[in-house]
Design a protein that fits this description.
Layout (H helix, E strand, L loop, with lengths): L3 E3 L15 H15 L2 H21 L4 E10 L6 H6 L3 E15 L2 H67 L5 H36 L8 H7 L9 H8 L3 H21 L5 E11 L9 E8 L7 H67 L5 H35 L7 E3 L1
Antiparallel strand pairs: 1-6, 2-3, 3-4, 4-5
Helix pairs in contact: 1-4, 2-4, 4-5, 4-8, 4-10, 7-9, 8-9, 9-10
Length: 427
């Protein structure tokens, strides 16, 4: 059966970045990653393999039909009776059908096991894609941080250039000193050097995204950075998030694996019980005295008496495998709960941090505006202006970095608690 990726994307209806929330741009890039990354087709083949294994398990309880043709030549019997029963040339052609009636119930345990393994593989494949989504989210939000730094530097350079032009004009009429002009020029050169470094880092991050997705992130203006990428203001309760996490794909895969290991015990244990098969033949051609008999049927019962203790050893090995799989599932649940609790606390702290840093950014900008005004009135010196510029720049950078780090953590929380839909394998 062919397989394809069902891409469940919400809100993607335009290529204009100013009209799209962060999730849409991230999803757009992830669609590109699915087309270029090898993990997606690998998981498709793994799921197809698991489904074929399940079909094979179904086939083990269905009848088998074989066509058989035999041509045998032997030495002619010396007496007439032997010659009539076993002629020297014997040709037989028949259709054989065999239906398993009872295999110690291990056939149905094997069917359940194959079904659980198929479900486990589908969940594991979905988890692999979720991890790829989170990896891309981390790269994308780092790109947003670099982009915001570059935008902030552009704004600072623009403000410094205007301030430098003002100082040069005042220098000509004796209202500014030459040292002030030189200090502003030095500060402007420092900002330009920082911009060059930021441009190189942003270009490198953009190229990384292009290489892994085949796409380039949409250009985002400073207004869009501020308006479209707002962090969350509140969170769901931890208890609700833990409940939503229980059905996480990696945990489901481990649980299904443990259930499959339990079914494997019954597959091995069923070998102690008898097997019953119904078999029938329809003869098209038959040698000897039975050539006029066109069909026959038989029931075969087979019971294992002793096999050197192999069967019981397989049962014990299956029990050990089941215990290990169950413990692994429990360990993964405990680790997932611990990670979620830590992430929850990190996001809570991040929300408060972003709130304070946002206020700090606004106050720093207001302080800079006031000091600039006071400098024009001669109430402050240029050193205080430059110091206030540096503080305002640092406050804005700290705010944007904390904001985008919080957004990345929020995406991670939504994926881990199944609140965000990412591409999944579908038949």
């Amino acid at each position: 059966m062919p397989f394809a990726f069902l891409i469940l994307l919400l809100g993607i209806s335009s290529s204009d970045a100013s009209q799209e929330p962060t999730a849409s741009e991230l999803d757009r890039l992830f669609v590109g990653l699915l087309k270029t990354d090898e993990r997606a087709p690998i998981e498709v083949t793994q799921v197809a393999r698991a489904e074929e294994t399940y079909r094979q398990a179904i086939g083990s309880v269905l009848p088998t039909i074989n066509a058989l043709y035999t041509r045998q030549i032997q030495e002619k019997a010396t007496n007439s009776i032997g010659s009539s029963i076993f002629p020297s040339g014997q040709t037989s052609a028949r259709l054989n059908a065999t239906q398993p009636l009872f295999r110690g119930l291990r056939e149905y345990a094997g069917l359940r096991q194959a079904g659980k393994l198929e479900e486990a593989q589908k969940a594991r494949s979905a988890w692999v894609l979720s991890q790829a989504y989170l990896e891309l989210s981390s790269i994308y939000h780092q790109w947003l941080i670099l982009k915001s730094d570059l935008t902030g530097l552009d704004q600072e350079i623009d403000a410094n250039q205007k301030r430098l032009a003002e100082l040069k004009a005042n220098r000509k009429i004796g209202k500014a000193r030459a040292a002030e002009v030189l200090s502003m020029e030095a500060n402007l050169e420092t900002l330009l050097a920082q911009k060059n470094a930021a441009e190189a880092q942003t270009a490198s991050a953009t190229e990384t995204i292009r290489l892994i997705t085949g796409l380039t992130p949409e250009k985002i203006s400073s207004r869009d950075l501020a308006a479209q990428h707002s962090p969350p203001k509140k969170m769901d309760t931890l208890e609700n998030l833990l409940t939503k996490m229980r059905g996480r794909d990696d945990l489901v895969a481990l649980e299904k694996n443990s259930q499959a290991a339990e079914d494997a015990i019954w597959v091995n244990r069923g070998a102690h019980l008898p097997s019953v098969d119904l078999s029938g033949n329809y003869w098209f051609q038959r040698p000897g005295v039975l050539q006029s008999v066109s069909w026959d049927a038989s029931i075969t019962l087979s019971l294992n008496i002793f096999s050197g203790g192999v069967i019981q050893s397989q049962v014990r090995a299956g029990q050990a495998a089941y215990s290990a799989a169950r413990l692994e599932w429990q360990r993964a649940n405990r680790a997932a709960e611990t990670d979620l609790r830590n992430l929850y606390l990190t996001i809570q702290s991040g929300i408060e941090q972003v709130t304070h840093l946002e206020k700090s950014d606004r106050l720093s900008q207001a302080t800079l505006a006031q000091i600039n005004q006071d400098h024009r009135l001669g109430l402050t010196n240029l050193f205080e202006v430059l110091q206030s510029m540096v503080q305002a720049q640092q406050a804005k950078r700290a705010y944007h970095r904390a904001k985008f780090q919080l957004l990345e953590n929020q995406v991670r929380l939504e994926v881990l608690t199944r609140q965000r839909t990412v591409p999944t394998l579908a038949p």
